[in-house]
Amino acid sequence: MRVLARVGVGPLCSAARAVIPWFWRGKYFSSGRESAENQVTPMLRHLMYKIKATGPITVAEYMKEVLTNPAKGYYVYRDMLGEKGDFITSPEISQIFGELLGIWFISEWMATGRNAAFQLVELGPGRGTLLGDILRVFSQLGSVLKNCDISIHLVEKTPQGWREVFIDIDPQASDKLRFVLAPCVTPAEVFIQSDETRDHVEVCPEAGVIIQELSQRIALTGGAALIADYGHDGTKTDTFRGFCGHKLHDVLIAPGTADLTADVDFSYLRRMAEGKVASLGPIKQQTFLKNMGIDVRLKVLADKSDEPSRQQLLQGYDMLMNPKKMGERFHFFALLPHQRLHGGSHPMNACQSKPSPSPVAGFGELAWR
Fold first, then answer.
1. Which of 80, 100, 178, 302 is the most exposed place for a label (fewest CB within 10 A)?
2. pLDDT band of 157, cuts 50, 70, 90
């Protein structure tokens, strides 16, 4: 489940149009390397016209154009998922992933009063595989149901203070792009903490808005949010990268031909919740799925499968759980009402039963009763 949305920045001061070269980790970074991949794509041509017309653009605006432009966007005209695509997601690897998440939602529904009507919302669906697996679990367990990619702003610490990173045309090569620093303050810098110790920070303002909205709704009406993605707890700096054919790809080369992404900063999400709700995690995907009983579910499915299907199940399990693959790279993070963890009353309607003070599934070791 992705809950981070694409963002942009409003008009900047006129001085922001003048920029200075930027050094990426001490090395000048641009798309100017000689490479067979360094082709002038329709998207690159579009970006060149845009930058010439309005000046350097933010990394967030670059990602938005490259990924979602209705005429040339990567997500609009490419089938990016699966072995033949550029990356693969956990739900596409194994049905067990979605099934366990379905059990998590049912567990929370039962623990918070079995409300006769509720909403299940996925932000950032791909092919709908995850929700399909979740709904299948709901159906099998007789539930009550009847019938956003990340765009980030890069900000670097300089002797003059925090400065946002922009993308401009390389003056030494008119068909290439480069990173530059804004010479003055931009709106993205407002989201930097006063005690920040990192020298590079990636911020996503609209993600904060979404988390604040979710937190307010959960605090007022109950419910829960479960966020699963690769990320960190405020420890990483530069995670902006591209993927093409399941391999890392220079983010400034041949825009429109590769996926662009960045890690989720879960400490930022926790901060944006503003204490309105309780948060759990982030914990590693390997730990969460183990706590949800993935080993038991794997055995049940494997015992009922023929040899080719069994091998496919084992391969999917290894991809999800292996620390060197997705097991420690992906994390789970949850937002819940404070009373869900600490007890206390919460308004209930006539269709709800009394909530139970049970542990939150997935965030503690599985206990059999």
1. 302
2. very high
Whether residue 316 lies inside any domain: the answer is: yes
Side-chain half-sphere CA neighbours of 197 within 13 A: 3
Domain limits for position 134: 79-160+192-340
Nearest to 87 by CA among 96, 78, 95: 78
Collect all residues with Cβ–Cβ distance below 8 Å to 36 and sequence separation of at least 6.
Answer: none
CATH number reported for the structural domain that contains residue 275 in this entry? 3.40.50.12710
Pairing of strands 23-24, 27-28: antiparallel
- Note whether residue 17 is domain-resident: no
State whether the Cα torsion 111-116-118-120 is positive or negative: positive
* 218: β partners: none
Longest C-alpha distance within the chain, in Å?
A: 70
Model pLDDT for residues 315-338, shown as the tens digit of each residue: 999 999 999 999 999 999 999 999
CA nearest 39: which of 257, 260, 255, 254? 254
In one-letter notation, the amino acid at residue 234 is G
Task: Confirm whether 322 is domain-assigned.
Answer: yes
Q: Within a domain: residue 45? A: no
State both tokens at 137: 């679990």
Pairing of strands 200-203, 225-232: unpaired
- The Cα 174–Cα 170 span in angstroms is 6
Count of domains observed in the chain: 1
List Cα–Cα distances, 261 to 35, 107, 225, in angstroms.
22, 32, 22
Q: Which residue has the higher pLDDT, 15 or 287?
A: 287
Contact (Cβ atoms closer than 8 angstroms) between residue 8 and residue 60 = yes
Contacts 24+ apart (CB under 8 A), 75-82: 75/149, 80/259, 81/126, 81/127
Distance of CA 160 to the CA centre of its chain: 31
Instruction: Please give the angle made by the CA atoms of 9, 10 and 13, to the nearest 5 degrees.
Output: 110
- Give the pLDDT mean for 237-256: 92
pLDDT (tens digit per residue) in 183-230: 999 999 989 999 999 999 999 998 999 999 999 999 999 999 999 999
How many whole angstroms separate alpha carbon 321 and alpha carbon 319? Answer: 6
